[in-house]
Design goal:
The chain is an alpha+beta fold. The protein has two domains: 86 residues, 434 Repressor (Amino-terminal Domain), CATH 1.10.260; 159 residues, Beta-Lactamase (2-Layer Sandwich), CATH 3.30.450. The chain has 14 helices and five strands. The radius of gyration is 21 Å and the shape is elongated. It starts with 6 loop residues before the first helix and ends with a helix.
């Protein structure tokens, strides 16, 4: 299955269908047979002609102005991540020459040195498509997906161990796909082929991707089932590494003095 050729229109339609018409100020005494706002209702609320908005959603105008995008984002109540993603969809895609200029996925020596020294923390570096490039030794012991050569998304959706490792697997899948769309807001190069492959290999991924949810978790908490230790609750922070590669460093850590802290120390 190829990626959606009209991602801008599909995203706008998915957000339009989530807006409650009454709360948006639409007065309609008829029995509505559509979810959310109608096309013409969104257009009028945004100050855009219905015929022009239809052209955008149908993919006949792929590059509306910034002013129109802002007006649509306001009516659709998009958050900052969704606004960035909307803007990225309206921008021309990178050319093959641009793609050739992207460096090979390597991790800087200084970052590798840090990972070697962090013996008591699970930490790893990933590419925009979530390929693990480098990790601490402890990371691979906590989660089999957190080792170089693995892909976090492929593990989550295609590896049968994922539902054992992640007690909250359903929630993790939602976050994983929505986070990938957030990455696409700024870095679309190289992701289309990966998304197409995942849509072919996983019906769950395809359904979540088609929902067009997009948000980014730069920090949070995750439960992981670790062999011999039971379920650990670990917080995490993410750090974007400066450079054109788009690498991100994930660092997981327990609350000080907790049983999770003691368990992680014993594993280290």
């Amino acid at each position: 299955m190829a990626p959606d050729d009209n991602q801008l229109g599909s995203f706008l339609r998915s957000r339009r269908e989530k807006i409650d018409a009454a709360s948006a100020g639409v007065v309609d005494n008829t029995r509505r047979r559509v979810k959310g706002l109608r096309r013409e209702e969104l257009a009028l609320l945004a100050g855009v002609s219905p015929s022009y908005y239809a052209r955008i959603e149908q993919g006949r105008d792929r590059h509306p102005s910034r002013e129109i995008l802002e007006a649509l984002a306001r009516v659709l109540r998009l958050d900052d991540t969704e606004r960035a993603y909307l803007g990225s969809l309206a921008m021309p895609s990178l050319t093959p020459a641009d793609m050739d200029a992207i460096p090979a996925p390597t991790v800087r020596p200084g970052v590798l040195h840090l990972l070697e020294r962090w013996i008591d923390l699970p930490a790893f570096v990933v590419t925009p498509s979530r390929d693990v490039l480098a990790s601490t030794a402890l990371a691979a012991r906590v989660n089999p997906a957190w080792r170089p050569g693995r892909n976090l998304i492929e593990f989550t959706f295609l590896d049968p161990r994922a539902q054992e490792v992640y007690p909250d697997w359903d929630e993790i899948t939602l976050q994983t796909v929505a986070g990938l769309r957030a990455t696409a807001a700024t870095r679309r190069t190289g992701l289309d082929g990966f998304v197409a492959s995942m849509c072919e290999r996983s019906e769950t991924f395809r359904a979540l991707w088609d929902s067009h949810d997009v948000y980014e978790r730069v920090m949070g908490e995750k439960r992981l089932a670790v062999d011999g230790l039971g379920v650990l609750r670990l917080s995490f922070e993410t750090f974007a590494l400066a450079g054109p590669e788009g690498h991100v460093l994930y660092v997981y850590f327990p609350q000080p003095g907790s049983t999770d802290d003691e368990a992680l120390r014993s594993l280290a």
